Amino acid sequence: MDWQRLERQVAFILEIDRLKTVYRRTYLTDTSRFENSAEHSWHIAVMAMVMAEYANNPAMDLLRVLKMLLIHDLVEIDAGDTFAYDKAAREDKAEREQGAADRLFSLLPEDQAAEFRILWDEFESRKTGEAKFAAALDRLQPLLHNLYTHGKSWQEHGVRKFQVVSLNRHMAEGAAGLWTFASKWIEKAVEQGDLAE
Amino acid sequence: MDWQRLERQVAFILEIDRLKTVYRRTYLTDTSRFENSAEHSWHIAVMAMVMAEYANNPAMDLLRVLKMLLIHDLVEIDAGDTFAYDKAAREDKAEREQGAADRLFSLLPEDQAAEFRILWDEFESRKTGEAKFAAALDRLQPLLHNLYTHGKSWQEHGVRKFQVVSLNRHMAEGAAGLWTFASKWIEKAVEQGDLAE
User: Fold this and answer.
1) Which of B144, B148, B142 is nearest to B181 (CA)?
2) CA-nearest residue of chain A to B48?
């Protein structure tokens, strides 16, 4: 076995522990605290197992979807979580995250650094069926949390219906059926007063 | 689309959010708090991506490994986390967790409930190459955290070397090379005074 190779892999594994301290604006369902990006990544990976049947591309490679979901937020270790409804912060998001990807993945042995970078680029580009489905789940999970908590995070940030629709509609590119349902849930949230018109 | 089926899947997805509030005895690498079982599950899933090459069975099905790792701790939502070095609590662990599996997986549509139960049983039985490798990572991750934090959790619970070796040696069944290294790291921890002889 190659000591040096293993040491790089272990260094990467220890470094990514920091994703557990990057907090998002999404509340846990019990509203006790914000969720962090590591547990969010776990949650959407399990969602991929449960909801694979709704992918637009039934021949999708689920292993690739899981890999993308598991690593898609690693860049936040350096770049922080960018609130989906914060327009200003989203402007330099790509730049911040590219730098983070350069540093983080280069901790790994070169072949794996390249593999992880390709997966992350694929997720970000949202062109393949796998990336579109992965991105759909990445949007659906915070939406479900907001619906379940009567729009707690939406209300705290003054988010309105047109913003929710505009941000989440690309869900249809990966899972049209899920977006059909999500649209209805959003309407219902407005009716119930959980989301501002 | 089948509304009822989707509703069951969504109910399951919201229920498993509770795994984010089940805390383990393992510290984050920055020692700021204990890690929870959701983020732990994420961490070992990424480890499987990075360390697949060390599996004893090179023809292993990585997708199956990831699926097992992502759901292996769900039963803790009802059964709680059982500290690996707590002998008394481990005695009724299996019984508590079987009941938890019955309740949790039955939230899903029947076909998926069966699929998840088979995956969980496979992980628990540790007979297939995939389950042995998944179990090896489930042991390696807290070991790495203990080594990195100079045995903080070991020392707080009076854990000694023979216990660490006895609990972790099955790592060799899934990834012999990783156990070779882990054994050396354990020796070094004793030398450094991080782990009691």
Assistant:
1) B144
2) A67
In a domain, residue A29? The reply is yes
Tokens of B131: 């389950």
Residue B50: give the domain boundaries: 3-191
Q: How confident is the model at residue A92 (pLDDT cuts 50, 70, 90)?
A: confident
CA B157 – CA B86 distance, rounded (Å): 9
Instruction: Please name the residues in contact with A26: beta carbons below 8 A apart, sequence gap of 6 or more.
Output: A34, A35, A40, A141, A142, A145, A146, A153
Instruction: Indicate the pLDDT class of residue A84, thresholds 50, 70 and 90.
Output: confident
Task: Give the one of B6, B13, B67 whose C-beta lies nearest to A47's C-beta.
Answer: B13
Domain annotation covers residue A197: no
- Positive or negative torsion for Cα B109, B115, B118, B124: negative
Can you give the pLDDT at residue B19? 98
Of A13, A21, A45, the CB nearest to B32: A21
Measured CA to CA in angstroms, residue A61 lies from A52, A58, A176, B117, B129 at distances of 10, 9, 18, 22, 22
For residue B42, what is the nearest residue in chain A, using CA coordinates? A42
On whether the CB atoms of residues A141 and A43 are closer than 8 A, the answer is yes
Task: List CB contacts (< 8 A) between B76 and chain A.
Answer: none
Q: What span, in angstroms and rounded, lies between the C-alpha atoms of A38 and A75?
A: 11
Residue among A22, A28, A42, A65 with most chain B CBs within 10 A, to mutate: A42
Confidence (pTM): 0.96
Q: Which residues of B touch A145 (CB under 8 A)?
A: 17
Does residue B43 sit within a domain?
yes
Query: Closest-CA residue in chain B for A109?
Result: B50
> B5, B12, B14, B17: which to substitute to probe chain A, counting the most A Cβ within 10 Å?
B17
Percentage of chain B exceeding pLDDT 70? 100
- Distance in Å, alpha carbon of B182 to nearest chain A alpha carbon: 11
- CB contacts of B41 in chain A (<8 Å) are 42
Residue (of B50, B95, B44) closest to B71 by Cα position: B44
Name the domain count of chain B. 1
